[in-house]
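Two entries, shown back to back:
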Amino acid sequence: MNRLIIALFLLFVSTQVKSQPDTLSALPYLPELQTAEYSFYVYDATTGQVVAQSPQKSLTPASVLKVVTTATAMRLLGPDFRFKTRFGYIGKIDHKTGTLKGDLIIRGGADPAFYSEYFKTHYLGVFEQWAYQLKQLGIKQVDGDVIGDASALDDTAIPGGWIWEDMGNYYGAGIYGLTFADNMYRIHFQSPAEAGEPTRVKYVQPETPGFSLDNRVVSSNKNSDQSYVYGAPYAQHQMITGEIPKGRNDFVVKGAMPNPPLEAADSLRKVVNKLGIEITGQAKAVFTGEDGEFRQMAVEKSPKLKDIIDTTNHESVNLFAEHLLREIGRKVSGKPTLDEGLKDLKSYWQDRGVYLQGFYQTDGSGLSRSNAVCTRTLVEVMLNMYRTPGDDQIFFNSLPLAGKEGTLKYFFQGTPLEGTLRAKTGSMERVRSFAGEFTNRNGHQLFFAVIVNNFSGSSYEMGKQLEPWLLTFY
């Protein structure tokens, strides 16, 4: 029965294409597109021909921009590249008394995955190992502080163009030289049985020294999270407003840590104390490096870059993409800054002849609405990866599989493209995009990108509306 339905569907699609000769230069008529702008580009790598293209418009891409960022990082850094986080101390150890007269240091290496929930087993027990090393040195007391050193990156934690509504929430977390636990914290709420009533914050996890939260969230009849956290980087006071479902005993909302280096230092401090080593000072964060000679005790390497990129594209992790962009700047010019990363990324593809008209990039993740790109650019970047031996399989495997994985899990289910098409998705309010590849019924390898801006309806609904159009190329 399923095969019959699919066959009839494809016959219908084929009939529609024949009756609408402009489908190769325009999307099918949809009421949602009346005031919208869109761009698409479809290329057959088997024949070397453009299958379909609209007039190229530079549009807001959302997260499909990660295709460009991750492809560039894969090329310039290499799939086996690893970030490094170092642990040590500054000062002297008095072996007679077992006292370290100085500070414990976590020296960040701009590792985006350090203690990330996406790599739980990789970092499991790292702080405990570091604390045990102190024990092995005979240290019973630290007469100083625990310092999170974030000087591996500059202190511009938020890219230009990110809006106030985003930057306090987990998907808008800042980028630091010492990133920790996805730079995210959780707010645990209790909501009353009636809608429109004030909610109660039960607790915040993890607890950060000096942090406070102004709760203005009320209960709602809606069964989804409609709350937003407002807070700037380094600011220890944040506000949360909006609505959460009524009648919940433990409803969790995720926010962006205001000071991840401080949180990392405080977490290590707690572990060291638990092992019986007294610390007289407190947790601190520094952003310009620490004074004194650093004595290294341990180095913790990140997962391989190919694994970080896989998570970046499957789960659309903005934080990871932003770190990769800055690491591109470090690799090419020795300057791990946002501006240098943007410049070096563009130069890399320019040197390879990729179409870059209308390419305006302001971050690595696509969260900024200031980003703009043509769909031809996205396709040509993917084609360049496809035509390079070794890069293609690793890179394209990082893109979610239709109907099966990541942000593409609920698209193309029950169609011939389920389990066949791989693509990066992008969505934000009034933005929907896809960029990826698949093999069609004739065995041809097709690469495509489509971006729609300023449509009516939800981003998810627009994505579902694009499914039949993409199926016409199967």
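entry 2 starts here
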Amino acid sequence: MVQLLENKLSDYCKELDIPLQELSILHSFSGGIDSTVLASLLIELKEKYGFKLSLMHFNHNADLNAKIREKFCNSFSIKNKVDYYNKDLFINHSENFESSSRKKRYSELNAITAKINSHIICTAHHLDDQIETLFMKMLDNSDWISKIGIREKLDKIRRPLLSVRKDEIRQIASERNLSWVEDPSNNDLSFRRNNVRKSFLPDAIKANPKLESTLLNESHASQVKMNSYISEFNNNKFNIKYSKQFISVNLEKIKYFEIEKLKIFIYWFSSNYLQIDIPEKSRNYWIEFSKYLQNSKTGSIYNLGPLTCILNREEILFISDYLQLLEEPIKTELTPNKKWFNTLFTIKNCNSPVFSKDRNEFSFTENVLKDGLYLRRWRKGDKILTSTSAQHILLSNLFINNKISKLGKLIQPVVVDKMDNIVWVPGLAHAKLPGDFTCNHRKVVKWIPA
């Protein structure tokens, strides 16, 4: 089994493009037989390659043995000279214990991983765990994505023993003369998984000896389908436009995806482009999201966990922090290399005697610049006296005529003088200004959009 683990770690390092000697692992260590065997194997390989290994134990304070397991894990780490972390978890009795404790564990594991710069998080899930999970998904009539079961790789999580049977783990524990601490909750039949492990699944296998292979084959087929979708997403063109504040995607490309494909796409691009994890949602939730994409009007908003979606004609905008974006930014002076959301302003000497009609730049007299120009967000009722028509135009009408989206209005800069008169709407309109148009007395302010 140590060879299997060594091969797995080598594969993980190839994906990370680092040598095995530089790998840093955080192992979720319960003190039970599975995690103790994995810890023992990892320690053997650590001594061979010199990579960094840390153990993390969670005390759920759920039974009288909890402190004994915590003490065992601490002693094990000291004896084997590995870094050790411990975290007390308290689960509200009104919550589902299994689900809530799992979410809290992974949240803490990710937090510690970021703190100590671990490359991967290892857990000791094995093939019997996988079969139990797949059986429960079958009983629940879950969608094909759920029937993939436990993933060997998910974000930083790695489960190198997922192909190993429980009996093999017991054999290794015996051969290495390992000790561990049993968790009494594993015998508590009030937990669904324990009932499945001890009763429902063995009875089902007796009735259908091919059940395990059927479940595993279905899991493999589902994983192949998932991989084909991810490959398609990586190679396809969705006209994705990316900035710090939002992502825009071609609406026509995704709005008729089947529900599962749409779900996978959202998880894929939010993770790859925004580094945001979407919380688990029900199938009905994704059905409603699909209807939103197909039937809603421009400007319609949909909250997708930590993302806010806004339809904008042929595209859909995904915003990572919409509430913060709604807050009006402080009026700020326009200075060289000034940033405004995902855009930039530069100021240079005027080199041309001809007044530029490019709406992404404007030449101002040095006196105007000396008096001060400022950036702010547009407000209802704002008007500009344009240089082309010499008439006052409402900015709201200017936005409509130029098909500026709801998000575009929020991040559109407006340039004003010290009296708050609008002198320029970058990209859209120049104001009619008096002044000396001699090149020697002017500076060019250029707006560089995203």
